[in-house]
Known about the structure:
44% of the residues lie in helices and 20% in strands. Strands 3-2-1-4-5-10-9-6-7-8 form a ten-stranded mixed β-sheet, sandwiched between helices. The protein is elongated, with a radius of gyration of 21 Å. Helix 4 crosses helix 5. By secondary structure, it is α/β, with parallel strands linked by helices. It has helices spanning 20-36, 50-53, 60-89, 112-123, 142-153, 185-200, 215-231, 248-258, 273-278, 282-287, and strands spanning 11-15, 39-46, 103-109, 127-132, 158-162, 175-180, 203-209, 237-242, 263-268, 294-298.
Amino acid sequence: MESTGINEKGTILVPVDYSDYSTLACRYAAKIATKSGSSLCFFHAFYSPAFDLIELTGGLQSQQQLRADVTEKLIESETSDMQEYIKKLYTFSEYNDIDKSRVSFEIKAGLAKDELINLAGELKPSMVVMGTRGADKKTSSIMGSITEVAIKRLSVPVLAIPEDYKFIGGQNMRRILYLTDFDESDFMSIKKLLQFSKLFKMSIHCIHIGPRTDKWEMLKMDGLKDYFQKIYQENSVECHILESKPDLLQSIDKYVAENDINLISLTHRKRSLLEKVLKPSLTKKIFYHTEIPLLVFHS
């Protein structure tokens, strides 16, 4: 059965490549697991050169056996590396309250993005937490590109932790900025966001990008405020319309700085080919721009 909420005792899937930014993601995932009671599953994929590098004159069966043997030995080596990595994670305070029985790992031979999609389909995690390179390095980063694929193709929430994220315990988990487009799918995302925010008693800033002079936009924002108050009795939610001038990302940056936002969240929607050509995805823009964690839901 597919997980329906971030705060239930599901499984948090954490892809790793043993880098420093993977470790940041593992520590952040541990924070969530401690509060939610979730299990942690670390995932690492490697590409086996056996299929490309081994040229044999023997029969097909002997070739297949040798390739299988080579891949099996590589899996043994990768498993040892993962076990050592998990030992390292337990030197961080975030793992003090996580029993090792709640931690597992998966090692797969293949392309990381494909294996991640397959594993997520089998595991049905409550969310995926991933580390990514800095904003100026993601275009050439394997983990950056895999995170982008995960955001596009997975149906579960994806939390991307940039390598420039300042990891200071619970102090930087206080305020969430949610970007709303007043779409119906926002209500399901907001429900999950509230579950997440309650784990850490985080306040929510619900922002719509648009002209403040548009009366229809103002009416929809007022309706969203009423929704928060009547359905969730939430007093720790601020709702505002944010002008995109002179630049959308600059406007978001300014709001983030002025309000000490610790996490940005939005809903990723599938778009038509024409929309992709004419209007770049806001999700992608923010993903390659922000230096604070990005939590993406899916419509």
